[in-house]
Amino acid sequence: MGSMTGIVKQLKKEHARLTDELHRVTAALTAFVGVYSGAKPTRKRRKLSAKARAKISDAQKARWAKVRAKKKAA
Question: How many CB atoms lie within 10 A of CB 65?
Fold first, then answer.
């Protein structure tokens, strides 16, 4: 029976070690979840005035007209 008590002591010691290790892993996971939660930080969107949007639209239309004119000429 002496060997049984030694085995039980070893098992209890290993259980304590594994429990401690599990607590450390849990703490590390908790820390990472706080930092890397998967959600990307949101940026504030810049708002353009109607005049600015119209100016961008007109410029893009002019660029496309230029491309189409080159295609037609070729």
Answer: 10
Give the residue extent of every domain in the chain: 2-36+49-73
Helix (H) or strand (E) holding 39: none
Max Cα-Cα span within the chain: 101
pLDDT in tens, the chain (74 residues): 578 888 999 999 999 999 999 999 999 888 887 766 666 667 788 899 999 999 999 999 999 999 999 988 87
Measured between alpha carbons, how far is residue 37 from residues 26, 27, 30, 34, 52 in Å? 15, 15, 10, 6, 37
pTM for the full predicted model: 0.43
CA angle, 45 as apex, 59 and 31 as ends, to 5°? 140
